[in-house]
Automatic annotation (TrEMBL):
InterPro entries: Papain-like_cys_pep_sf, Transglutaminase-like. The lineage of its organism: Bacteria, Bacillati, Actinomycetota, Actinomycetes, Micrococcales. Residues 642-684 are annotated as: Disordered. It holds the Pfam family Transglut_core. This is Transglutaminase domain-containing protein. The keyword Transmembrane applies. Residues 647-671 have a biased composition (Basic and acidic residues). Residues 559-634 form the Transglutaminase-like domain. SUPFAM superfamilies: Cysteine proteinases. Keywords: Membrane, Transmembrane, Transmembrane helix. It comes from Agromyces protaetiae. The chain crosses the membrane at residues 21-42, 48-68, 75-99, 141-160, 167-185, 205-221, 254-275, 701-721.
């Protein structure tokens, strides 16, 4: 029976415990990195399950790596087994941890498992298109679970296997925190002030600094543990060496602390400049359904189609529920004007709303069914949605996935129809279709709406809203009214605009116009007058020109009825009111929709009570001042009093008469007043000058190249420093200095390669060369001693020979090392740091056989 040396057994036990200590130290770092990543991901979900997913995902990844290490010690086999265990563990935990809504009923587990599998590929888009906080909606936690599980598995595999690749585990550990930054909200966190110093984007800076600090702490601790193990092995050998002095240890530790502090302080100091260089951009800002919106024709341009022919009496939507709790049912919110049409600002970002909401205090629920008279991307829904609508019917799931809302107002539906849908021609169509049904919960308008209106009335406008050269008639009419540039003055202007206009939905009194003309006539008398469609700059300018000319001809003290001049409908008057608001310095937008029973009735427009037809379609303007609440203002013109035509120099009659029939012959609209043209010439585009898109691309390229240059700067600096040092040693101008420089270069070469050299005081150069186990070192040591101690100076050929030995040794080391080791040797600062020490480096840890 073989006896085991007790000393050998003790060393084996210590070695095993030391390896276990390294592993546990690395796993502790990984757990801390997962916790930091959960903190970074919190704003995306704001749910306690963020922490649960982080804990379970890290446990699955670490457990898979540990089991794989025991089953398959090899690198390739271990990687395959780790991947298999990770996938299996993911499938076991994904439903209860990341898709909890699929647990009940049990029949939903299969659906949850399907969402967990497809979410690996498709879940990222769902996260990016939902408006945070996402909570636990559907499978939005799946991407977070994937990130934590995969990164933990990769990092744990590198940690438990140890060796030179173990430090690479810091990369996947840091990547977990990147998820919270890249997929997070587009706005940065609030700054923190320390006296006069302000730290912008404080939360993001803390996450970044903490990630680097954790990685640096782990790597430094691991290096010290390896160093202690090497010292212990050396002391257990036959040669006893004196330890490092306390002063050297303090200097080394102080240097590490100083480098870390300098890096952190530099990062924090640079954060204000980086934060102010440009707006924060996340992946969320790049994935938007706004491209669908930009392809749509402005719904305001088709406003008159609701009143033409059968569309006037065709059901657009059916509403039920707490309809009386709301005053309006918006379809589309339009906030930008290009001179031709009002549309949606291309910068508007539509996001998905998570989950569904229960009825709570201050909320009400209504149900909507799309009628035969409507289809499209614009979703009829009250303002102040509490959550995503609950769709019902065969297309419910598709519609739920396609619903998006803008934080500025308005909602769209981008689901595509299929050949199996009941609506005719639905295949390939986008948006809502006849028969689609849903219910929504929204906040009930309360006293805050009245408070917002009062605040707007007391607000002061600003100068420079519209260019008077582009809108001369509008500017002249506003100036002619002599009202203050305040919210109250604006509301007075809108009242005058409505009172002095005349409602008309058509250019011709023909068959398509019979229904709305009959309806207005039955409501107290109405005589048709033609009006042009469209709301281009030319059309709106002609409206204000008519109003201004009529007021000037009527005189200062004319009766209000003598000032009626402009014909049109909500399309023209809503745009006119929106532009007047902008001229006074207020924000404005046009909203297309219907009035519900909660709103004050407006003559000429039907109220949507249950079965709502095209007759109920209207448009109004919303205004606000100084970022306050939006205030809805009706703009429908009156339809009771006909305009009175006054020629220049004519005395207006005291009692104007209303003609029995104001019917006119068809008039071809002049080119400048059509809906699709404008009197102003099209802008000249400079083919050479940079466009905004080009500027954005160039700016992005410059930022990217600059960032890469900053990342590469330390690498380039290290390579340049070593090259400069080598050239100065090779060509010092003296053969003896050149030979000594070759020895110094060889020592630095060994330091970078990780080959230990015995440089204790009193050790000769020959002994130091022997400690390396390298024949080239021994040969060069002999040459250096001969050059230094010989009675005559060496020849230049001796210096050339010495450097040939160094060059040959460098090539030999490159041939013995793997690619990763060669790269590390080229970039490591070991040779520079070694010269800061007065005492020698570590005792011999690694040696190679001397080849003769």
């Amino acid at each position: 029976m073989t006896r085991i040396d007790p000393a050998r057994r003790g060393r084996a036990v210590r070695t095993g415990s030391e390896e276990a200590g390294l592993v546990w130290w690395g796993l502790a770092y990984l757990a801390a990195a997962a916790a930091l990543a959960a903190f970074a991901a919190w704003p995306i979900h704001e749910s306690w399950r963020v922490w649960l997913v982080a804990a379970v995902g890290a446990a699955v990844g670490i457990g898979s790596a540990a089991l794989a290490r025991r089953i398959a010690p090899g690198a390739l086999g271990g990687a395959l087994v780790t991947a298999a265990f990770t996938a299996l563990g993911y499938l076991l935990v994904v439903v209860p941890v990341a898709v909890p809504s699929a647990l009940l009923p049990l029949s939903g587990v299969a659906r949850g498992l399907r969402d967990g599998i497809t979410g690996v590929v498709l879940g990222w888009k769902q996260v990016l298109t939902l408006e945070p906080p996402l909570g636990e909606y559907q499978a939005v936690l799946v991407p977070w679970l994937v990130v934590v599980t995969v990164c933990s598995a990769v990092a744990a595999s590198l940690i438990v296997r140890g060796g030179r690749v173990a430090p690479v585990a810091a990369a996947p550990a840091i990547a977990m925190s990147v998820y919270g930054i890249a997929f997070g909200v587009g706005r940065v966190s609030a700054p923190i002030r320390f006296g006069e110093l302000e730290l912008p984007a404080a939360r993001e800076v803390v996450i970044g600094v903490a990630s680097l600090a954790l990685a640096a702490g782990w790597l430094i601790g691991r290096s010290r543990m390896l160093r202690a193990r090497a010292l212990a092995r050396a002391r257990a050998g036959t040669v006893t060496r004196s330890g490092e002095s306390v002063w050297m240890t303090l200097r080394r530790n102080a240097l590490a602390v100083v480098l870390l502090v300098v890096a952190l302080v530099a990062g924090v100091a640079a954060s204000p400049a980086v934060a102010s260089f440009g707006d924060r951009s996340t992946l969320r800002d790049e994935i938007e359904p706004s491209i669908v919106v930009q392809r749509q024709q402005s719904p305001l341009a088709k406003y008159r189609s609701w009143f033409a022919g059968d569309a006037y009496d065709t059901t657009v939507v059916k509403v039920s529920g707490d309809v009386g709790s709301f005053d309006r049912l918006p379809f589309a919110t339009l906030d930008t004007f290009d001179g031709e049409v009002f549309g949606v600002d291309p910068a508007t970002r539509y996001s998905r709303l998570p989950g569904s909401a229960d009825r709570g205090a201050g909320t009400a629920e209504i149900s909507v069914e799309i009628g035969e008279g409507y289809s499209g991307v614009w979703v009829p829904a009250p303002s102040g949605l509490a959550a995503s609508p609950v769709f019902v019917g065969a297309r419910a799931e598709r519609l739920a996935d396609g619903f998006h809302a803008a934080s500025t107002g308005g909602a769209i539906e981008v689901a595509e129809g299929s050949a199996t849908d009941s609506a005719a021609g639905s295949a390939g169509a986008v948006g809502l279709m006849p028969g689609d049904r849903y219910s929504v919960v929204a906040r009930i308008p309360d006293a805050s709406a009245d408070a917002a209106r009062e605040a707007f009335a007391s607000a002061a406008g600003a100068d420079g809203g519209l260019d008077p050269e582009e809108f001369p008639s509008l500017a002249a009419w506003v100036e002619l009214q002599e009202v203050p540039r305040t919210g109250a003055g604006y509301l007075d202007l809108v009242d005058r605009l409505r009172d002095r206009g005349y409602l008309s939905h058509a250019l011709l009194d023909d068959e398509p116009a019979v229904r709305w003309i009959t309806a207005l006539a039955s409501d107290g008398g109405y005589s048709f007058l033609p009006s042009y469609a469209g709301h281009s700059r030319a059309r709106i300018e002609s409206l204000f020109a008519e109003l201004g000319d009529q007021q000037r001809r009527a005189g200062a003290n004319a009766d209000e009825s003598m000032l009626i001049a402009g014909e049109g409908d909500d399309e023209q008057f809503a745009v006119a009111a929106a532009l007047v608001a902008r001229d006074l310095g207020f924000e404005s937008r046009v909203v297309l929709g219907m009035r519900l029973p909660g709103a004050e009735p407006v003559p000429g427009i039907a109220v949507c009570e249950s079965d709502c037809t095209g007759a109920a379609m209207t448009a109004w303007v919303e205004v606000r001042a100084g970022g306050g609440g939006w205030v809805a203002v009706d703009t429908t013109p009156q339809s009771k009093l006909l305009p009175t035509r006054i020629t220049e120099g004519e005395q207006p009659p005291k009692h104007p008469t209303v003609p029995d029939d104001a019917r006119t012959e068809p008039i071809e609209p002049p080119r400048g007043e059509s809906a699709s043209t404008d009197s102003a010439p099209p802008p000249v585009i400079d083919p050479v000058g940079p466009t905004p898109v080009t500027g954005t691309i160039v700016r992005s390229i410059v930022l990217g190249v600059g960032a890469l240059a900053l990342l590469a700067l330390p690498i380039l600096a290290m390579l340049a420093a070593k090259s400069t040092r080598r050239r100065s040693r090779r060509h010092p101008g003296d053969p003896e200095l050149g030979i000594v420089g070759a020895w110094e270069e060889l020592l630095d070469l060994y330091a970078d390669a990780g080959i230990e050299v015995d440089l204790d005081p009193g050790v000769s150069r020959a002994t130091a060369a022997l400690s390396t186990g390298r024949a080239a070192a021994v040969a060069l040591a002999v040459s250096v001693d001969h050059a230094v101690f010989a009675p005559y100076p060496p020849e230049p050929e001796a210096a050339v020979h010495a450097w040939e030995l160094v060059d040959a040794e460098r090539e030999a080391l490159r041939g013995e090392e793997r690619a990763f080791e060669r790269l590390r040797a080229a970039l490591t600062p070991r040779s520079f740091l070694a010269r800061l020490r007065r005492r020698p480096r570590l005792p011999l840890v690694r040696s190679k056989e001397i080849t003769q």
